[in-house]
Amino acid sequence: MSAPERAESKRQAPRVAKPPVTIGRTRRRPAGPGFTIITGLSGAGRSEAARCLEDLGYFVVDNLPPSLLAKMAELAAKPGGPGKVAIVLDVRGGVFFGELSKALAELEELKIPYRILYLEASDQDLVNRYEATRRRHPLAPADRVVEGIRKERLMMESLRGEADLIIDSSGLTPHDLRDRVRDAFADTAPEAGLQISIISFGYKYGAPRDADLVIDCRFLPNPHWVDELRPLPGTDDRVRTYVRGQQTYREFMRRLRSLLGFMTPGFVAEGKSYLTVAVGCTGGRHRSVVIAEDLARFFRDKGLPASVDHRDLDR
Question: How far is CA 46 from CA 88, 174, 289, in A?
Fold first, then answer.
């Protein structure tokens, strides 16, 4: 092939996007509240989460360079140190991932337990927030906000996969987000091990993006089609009696409890600190609400802390 032909071939060759940098780590069981890394998408609520942890007694450091993570963790662990520490990290360029990967490896070598809290939201929610504040996206200072969101989501993909807890702030008010963070990070007994968050939702409004397990209960008889039950919420005794009175429901719950009872010890053994279970029905007002409450009782009976959020109950 002649030199001109080779040059033309290079010009026509399609560009292949570089894959996001992989950040790997061994699984570990966090010992107490300890050292927390807050990260995620710009505009998804990192600052709000940080303020909430500060209220819970954490020493919060914003935008600490990843190369200083291990040093900060060592200082926190020393007698008389701040104890509970939360570090807010955001992405500003490719060097971030190289430094962060080294820092996390150093934490592993030093046997310092840590947790990663990852905040995200839908593209539309992020765009709306940037428009409301009139800020520029850090990865698209001269481009459309949606392009910056796309770049950041791709760059953060591997870090999201390593997160211990993912919170999707789509549709949440700052108060709602603080409640979610507080439920997850408020001090619990060390023997509690796994913290359970159960969310009931309506499929017509979209499934939660931060769920570890999603359970679809739309196959169950729907109280919406019973005139006297339609306006009532799933927390009402009459709706609960109707849903629980179905033979299909009783068999479903028997099998679901058996499955979750089998899976939960495995999550604990793998060092998972948080488990988010989402239960969905059509509108999120009846069947999913009843099941979420019953699952919370199931986990609490096993000695595991379980919080419940009925996301779409009032819609």
Answer: 7, 11, 29
* Residues 56/182, Cβ–Cβ less than 8 Å: yes
Domain identity same for 216 and 299: yes
Quick one: pLDDT band at residue 24, thresholds 50, 70, 90?
A: very low
Contacts of 33 (CB under 8 A, 6+ apart): 58, 84, 185, 187
Same structural domain, 200 and 266: yes
Radius of gyration of the chain (CA): 23
Mean pLDDT is lowest, of 34-48, 63-77, 220-234, for 63-77
Cα–Cα distances (Å) from 278 to 36, 188, 246, in that order, read 24, 22, 21
CA distances from 117 to 19, 97, 235, 283 (A): 23, 16, 31, 29
Q: Which residue, 202, 121, 135, is CA-closest to 166?
A: 121
Closest-CA residue to 162 (of 104, 122, 214, 96) = 104
Task: Domain of residue 213: give its range.
Answer: 196-310
Structural domain ending residue among the three candidates 187, 217, 236: 187
Residue 284 sits in the same domain as residue 139: no
Residues 275-314 have pLDDT tens digits of: 999 999 999 999 999 999 999 999 999 888 899 999 999 9
CB 294 within 8 A of CB 170: no
Asked if residue 264 and residue 149 are part of one domain, the reply reads no
Distance CA 1, CA 208 (A): 54
Residues 200 and 176 occupy one common structural domain: no
Please check whether residue 199 is in contact with residue 171, taking contact to mean a CB–CB distance below 8 angstroms.
no
Are 177 and 260 contained in the same domain? no
Whether 106 and 239 share a structural domain: no
How many domains does the structure of the chain reveal? 2
